[in-house]
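sorry for the late reply, my laptop died twice this morning and i had to redo everyting from scratch. anyway the thing you sent over, i finally got around to it. pasting the sequence first so we're on the same page, its 137 residues, then the predicted structure underneath. double check i copied it right bc i was rushing
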Amino acid sequence: MKRKLPTAALAILAAGSATAFGAFVGQGEAHETAYATADGLRCAVVTRDLGDTVQITGKVTAERDVSGEYALSIRQTSSGGQSVIDQGGEFTVGAGRTVTLGEATMGGTAQSYTADLELTVNGQRLRCRPAADATEL
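ok and here's the structure:
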């Protein structure tokens, strides 16, 4: 007898698999980790491996004027331990616009970093999850 997983469980499994994929970024490439969509709102975590540094940026775009709050959490794991950078605050994005919600440039390789971006708009939480094919918002 085959077991069917509820849609929520499949979404969690897909997000976990994509998170593992998001850790592998080649030098000089940009990888957009994300893509939460709700009511015309999309978000992404863009990771760029610049050789000896890594740039991680939170982005959001909207089809209509939107205000809310964001939380960007960046974690680095290495043989020396773990470090965490948390950024957050309020944001406003105009219709048809894309804005940056937090940015950090650090030493090391993209493989040693993970990042999560969460938005709260009108009481609804959106968590940007990995999507290998997201090239633009």
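Confidence is low (pLDDT under 50) at residues 1-35.
thats about all i looked at so far, will dig more tmrw
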